Amino acid sequence: MSDLGRQSFTDKASAAIKPDSQKSTTEHFGDKMKGHTDSAGSTMQPNSQKSTSQQMGDTFSTNQNHNDRSMMDKAKDALGMEKH
């Protein structure tokens, strides 16, 4: 099961299985948008806050976040707002 706000694993599998030649323009656009949104979700959420199944799903879909700090935490650091 995917984490809240992330693309479900069955949706990812369905999009990957159906040949591009059988997809409508709308499906192509939707797949691309969902992929970008899911990738952003993967980057924004630290690995320490992901469920085990989401971490595994990200590994298989190459949607990996190799750091433990979120982009929001990094932005706070840059602005001097984060306490360590």
UniProtKB/TrEMBL annotation:
Q: Where is the composition biased (Basic and acidic residues)?
A: 25-37, 66-84
Q: Where is this region: Disordered?
A: 1-84
Fetch the InterPro entries from UniProt: HSP9_HSP12
Q: Where are the transmembrane segments?
A: none
Q: Which domain of life is it from?
A: Eukaryota
Which residue intervals are annotated with compositional bias (Polar residues) in the record? 1-11, 39-65
This one is known as Uncharacterized protein
